Each structure stands twice: as structure tokens, then as C-alpha cells.
Amino acid sequence: MFDLDRWQEIYHVLSKNKLRTTLTAFGVFWGMFMLVVLMGSGNGLRNGVMGDFGSFATNSFFMWGQTSSMPYKGFQKGRYVAFDNDDTEALQRGLIGAEVVAPKCQLGGYRSTNFVTRKNFSGSSFSISGDIPEIIKISPKKIVAGRWLNQKDLDDKRKVAVIGSRVRDVLFEKSEDPIGEYINISGIYFMVIGVHDLEFTSGHNDNELETILTPLTTFQQAFNWGDRVGWYSVMGKPDVAVADLEQQARVILKKRHNIHPDDHRAIGGWNASEEFGKISGLFVAIQILVWVVGIGTLLAGVIGVSNIMLVVVKERTKEIGIRKAIGATPFSIVSQIILEALILTSIAGYLGLSAGVGVLELVNNSIGGSAGMFKSPEIDLMAALVCLVIIIISGGLAGVIPAQKAAGVDPIVALRSE
């Protein structure tokens, strides 16, 4: 393996026809380059999409009232289902597997925006909601100033609010401390007790920065909601199946609101666990596809190396015959050919790996780590090591058939060949 004459011979063989060697090596280079780039791109897409979930509780689901689609117990279809505080208590009692049952109200309804003022400043794109403190377990937020809502705020119906960092930027001067100041929401003043920022950033959740959160009880009283609840966010305990928990919640609410058991339209819902599972499965399939396409491209390059080594063996038939005539063993002939193929594929493959990583790093730097649904394209250390192992195995396989052909050369026939 470390015989200097052998290495000199390998160099001589590979450099004898530089164009042929370069073109052959390029096939392996391109296959490895494509494998790395495809893997990195797949990871970038996965990071971008999964980034939307961030630290969001994926073992959760959401439910809201809609209109019934079936008559039941004397009630006609088309009846609107509205939740209230009694529903909240029923869910908290009945859902044993739930860690958090969080009722929520939003001024103007889902995705609506509201006009908020403070002194000479105003903003019209802010979302106002009434929440309980536990909602932060489902939708984590980073408190950058002041504090979060607490149970005392809820019990005393305090007119306090936690504002998003973008709300602070619009309603306050840069040098101003918003904590303890008052903002005007629909003619009602709330004292700012905290400022929240994003726990994670993905480019799709920036609207969270424009939210203003108030205690649920305060919201219901201040904005004349009575005991109404807009919708529920429910997070299951670690070992509880979210799908089963959601079904239990639907049974409880349908029974309370006299909804037909088979009416699937009366209560809307979104299961984060189910959606997360679908997306995870999709990216597993994408990853498999990337490996199949990448390895297929690399295999094409390896076949090219094998074909060229067959040509090299044919060109060296007389040389191989002389070696065998003077006592060279079949193993020495085979190992020489395999080593030549291994060196060629290893160098080309390593250069392809390095070039692929370099391109991914260049893309990552140019987009600043994130571009919408594409974030941090990269391959991990384990994937890089797997690629190196593939290079070595490919080199060995590329030399097997030519080596067998070389080992089978008849010395007498070889000496007679031109």
C-alpha cells in the first residue's frame, strides 16, 4: 500500500492521458457534488418549513364554533355554535389527558386588525386578544421587557397588556420604556406590563410581533363579550395521543351544544400534531428521493470510471503479462487496479464533496441564513461521513471488474499482443 514504486506507477497511469482522466473524474465529482447540493437543499427546505413550528407545541390542537349541518333534538341545521366559559370548565374537567386548555378571544374575530393609539402615535394593524397565562406553553414567546400575564391579572380583571415588539416600535419612541405606560384600545386604556418577541424566526410568523395580549376575563368585560369564548387551544400531556384528545373534546362540546354526533362541520378544528406528522413524512420521502437521485448520479460516474479502467487494463495487457511471467501474484495485480480506481474516485469525490459544501455555505451566507421557506441549507457531519464512505466503496466497486479482467490475463497471450 505504501510502496513508493506503486504510487509512482499510479501517478504515471493517471497522468498519461490527462484529458481522459479529467473527464472520467468529473463524472464522480459531479455525482458527489449533486448529492451534497440536493441534500443541503432538502435540509434547507425542511428547516424553513419546520421553522414555522419553531418551539410551538406540536402536541396541540385548536377548536372553534361553526354552523351545524344536521338537525338534532329539535334544532334545525344552520345553527351557529358559540362557546362560553362553562364550556371551558367542562373541557378542563373532562380532558384528563390535556396539560393546557386555553380559551381565547380576539377582537373583531380571527385575523382581524384593530386601531390602537398612544398619545400622538397610532397603529391600525394590531391584533387584540384575550388569553390566559398558560397559552405561553402552547405558543411560546420571549419576554424582552417587563413580565408575562399571571393568574392575579386574570382573577382581578386587570386592564393590563403584553405587547409585541413591533407594537412597541410603532407606539413608543426608541428611548422610551413602555412598561407602565398606557395604550388606548377602542376607547379603553390598558397598562403595558410586558413586551414579547419571537421565540423563533421563520419569516412567516412576523405577525406575532403585532399582537397585544390581555387577560381573558378583562377582555370579556371590557369589550362586552360576556362569557363568550372565541376558540380553544389544547395541548396534550407528553404520552397522550392528540387525535384521541381532540375526539374527546368534540364529544364533550357536541353533547353540551346538542350537536348531532355525526355532524363534522359544526365544530372546526386544526390538529398541529397531525399536520406536523404529515410534513415530517413528506420530508422523509424527499430525503429518500434525494439519496436515490444523488447516488444514481454518482453511480453513473462510477460506471464511467470502471469503463475507463477496463480500457486502461486493455492498454496494459502486455505489461500485466510480463508481470505475471516474472512472478507477480494475482493479488498484486488486482490490488494495483483497484487502488488506481480508488484513488481516482476518492480525489474526484472529495473535491465534489468540498465544492458542494462550499456552494451551500455561499448560498447560506447570501440569504443570511433564511429566505422565506428556505433556511440554513447544510449537511450534517454524519451525512458528510456517509458521503465519504460512499466514495470509498464506489472506488472499490469501480475497480473490481477491471481488476478481475487483469488478473485473468494469460501471460503467453499477453506477451504476443501488440
Topology at a glance:
Layout: H1 4-16, H2 18-51, E1 60-65, E2 83-84, H3 85-94, E3 98-106, E4 114-118, E5 121-131, H4 135-138, E6 141-146, H5 151-155, E7 160-164, H6 165-171, E8 182-185, E9 188-198, E10 211-215, H7 216-222, E11 228-229, E12 231-236, H8 242-256, E13 267-271, H9 272-315, H10 317-325, H11 330-366, E14 370-371, E15 374-375, H12 381-407, H13 411-416
Parallel strand pairs: 5-10, 7-9
Antiparallel strand pairs: 1-12, 1-13, 2-11, 3-5, 3-12, 4-5, 4-8, 6-9, 7-10, 8-9, 14-15
Helix pairs in contact: 1-11, 2-9, 2-11, 3-8, 9-11, 9-12, 11-12
Distance between the termini: 30 Å
The whole-number mean of residue pLDDT values reads: 82
- Helical percentage: 40-55%
Q: What is the approximate shape?
A: elongated
What pattern of helices and strands is seen along the backbone?
Answer: HHEEHEEEHEHEHEEEHEEHEHHHEEHH
Sheet bearing the most strands, described? 6 strands, mixed, barrel
Strand content: 15-25%
Number of helices: 13
